[in-house]
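Good day; I would like, with your permission, to put a structural problem before you. What I wish to show you is a protein chain and, alongside it, a tokenised description of its three-dimensional fold. Here, with my thanks, is the record as I have it:
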Amino acid sequence: MQGRIPELVVGVRNRSAFTAGKDYADAVYFSVDRFSLRARAKEITLDNLEEFVGYIKECSLKSYLVINTVIYPEDLPAVNTILDAANNAQVDAVIAWDPAVIQAALDRGIRVHISTQANVSNWQAAEFYRKLGASRVVLSRELSLKQIKDIRQHTSIELEVFVHGAMCQAISGRCYLSAYLLGKSANCGECNQPCRWQWTLNGEDGVQVELGGKYLLSSKDLCMIEHIPELIETGVDAFKIEGRLRNTSYTSTVSRCYRQALEAYENSSYTILKAREWKQELNDVYNRGFSTGFYFGVPGPDGQAIEADMNASSVQRQAVGVVLNYYSKQGAAAVRLLEQGLALGDVIVIEGTNTYVEQKVESLQIGEKSVRKALKGDEVGLGVTGRVRKNDRVYRVKNC
């Protein structure tokens, strides 16, 4: 029997990222500039939260606000202020794990989704949160398909699982390595990712141990595009895409591929050949190599990216320049080429806090003259296919 199609939940950090994924997602999750495990995601604030959520609603998507850091006594007043703002903005749910946040959200009548930080790994834990009043649990990342099926059979609470994105080397992200080495707590959103650094292993006698790689703690990214049927048939209610701090090309490509996979499953056209084609597209945006995480058992050495640097993608984004002005009637932008030149046929991305445009370069002008290419330092007129804004950045997308 075919399973019910899960909700596709995509992480975004600003309006640009939302624009990149809105045509494929059913819901988005995001944070304001405090109390999020992605502390660098600061573009959404209490001042623009209501406007941002309103735009999400205009696009007929659901909005989930993340409050998932450790909460200290001195944080409680600010948490209550954020929840008041969330209530006024009419967010669809708050993603949390701290009991103080959970209770404060429920007191305001806001739906609560239990964060993966709670490490819910069995049905009794899921039932505990259901009886507390939570509507959904984002399950631990360390569960197999068999274990998820068991949880599904014993609880009626909505279940959400990760399908794509970064994997942490610690249990459901509860890591202390960054805090220990650098004084930057992952559990307060400030992780500096020392697990992604190059490391060497030395024996007690001081001799360096040969392990066949340098990135000894770096996990590959999760990718379940080739196993959509198995994951749907566990009976979960939502698929989550990780990557709020990744670029907008990542958000666009990953959300599109998983939407197409879900639609293919729904109309019985999903095949492993199609899945491999989608996986190749996923490989062309930021990634650290792919694995299936814990879904088919505890990952071995093949789950570690011991040879890869931070980005294993064969396609890289290269900074080109900055938008100086936008001319809506002409469908063009003035661009200063700060880092390198541009040529007709180049694939580019223009992005900013509120902008996302991906296109080929089809028109270039210097002064009144049309040109086939422009050089670093030039100011050019660039034909654009959507609205851009002053200070938006221009990138070339290029195979390495």
User: Anything to note?
Assistant: The CA atoms of residues 95 and 113 lie 5 Å apart.
